[in-house]
Amino acid sequence: MKKFGSLLLVSIFAGAITLGAYKFFIEETNYTVVTNEDGQRVFQTSYTPTSFKGSGINEVDFTVAAENTVNAVVHVKNLSLSSSAGSRSILDFIYGSGGNQRPKVGAGSGVIISSDGYIVTNNHVVAKASQLQITLNNNKTYEAELVGTDPVSDIALLKIDADENLPYLAFGDSDNTKIGEWVLAVGNPFDLTSTVTAGIVSAKARDLGTRQSFIQTDAAVNPGNSGGALVNTNGDLVGINTAITSQTGSYVGYSFAVPSNIAKKVVEDIMEYGNVLKGILGISAGNRNTRYAIEKGFNEIEGVYISSVEEESGAEIAGLQEGDVIKMVDNLPVKKFPDLSGYLSTKRPGDEVQVTVERDGGQLTVPVTLTELQRVDLPVMGLTVKNLTKKDQKKFKTKKGVKIVEVPESYRGYGLQGKVLLSVDDQEIDNVQDAKALFGGISTRGKTSITMLNENGERERLIFQ
Q: Does the global pTM surpass 0.85?
């Protein structure tokens, strides 16, 4: 029996050796190739270890940015007086519309930008205010002084006198924000405490029809959050929340912020000069989606098409020409007009920028010194005027006044186009800023007289009611 068992073990062992030798040395290996025709798909998988925290959103820490921001965001209360157009009394005829004025309260948010109480908010939050009140995140309340505003950028600067150093946010560099970057929108809409919402930068250099440049985000922003802070995950202030696009007036997925670089420049100008200095290239950009754009072939180009160059402007002195396409300014690529206008909004007259243009199939870069704004749209009447060039001064034989270059439809029958506007209600005009200020003070209830000069050197006087 023992002999039989030994023979069995030897046989099994010998068989195993023989089978192994056959498989290793003799048998050919057959491979099965799986192709798309087999109805199966081949996937290439990365074996890089994933984060122990789970999905990517969990790796973003909003807590530090939120903690550094909430105490620097305030509630802004605007008390104004409004008149009801539906109900008039005898007091209206004796005292004007003030006889039927009623208090009206508006609200928004603001951001403290210095320890001594300077606060930036939106111009529309404080517009027509007779009294401004600031409530901090710790519920302390202060009366605020309006330092200055810029309706174009929708930025306003306020000041409060606190009895302590206040928490504040420093301006970050909005040019460094990237599409897809996480941001927080912080506001104080209900006079309670600051609220925080999160989202990403959806787009940059958005134009909302005003030819201004905005940061677009999907962080929830509602009306009371206007003037609040848009910060990145480091807590840097990269924007001032300004607007939403909604048919209902509530947040539906898009909100917009004034880039911090623009807001910072506006604030610095108000503090140093009392108004906002605007540096311009001196070009007019061709509007896309028009017959002219299609005929000229720039409807689908990437860049800004120069349709005209202002006389005696930095662009003309630098040699920019009609038909040039601006591709870059300094180190910023220019794909559309808001890219250009947004960057120039951070500059002042006298600043020099490097402008790269495409011309005749090639590219060239020229330095352009920005000049002061030469043309403005006047309030009330809607005329567009520009400062006189040396050629205009010689032609009209005057160094005072501004030239009327565009006239709205309602005034085209008065022969205003191309004439020099000398005065409004006998107050002389030296430049476009004078004209803007004087037209801004025109009463819509009384008579207004303007004095002009035609090409023959003759003075003309018109009275409007």
A: no
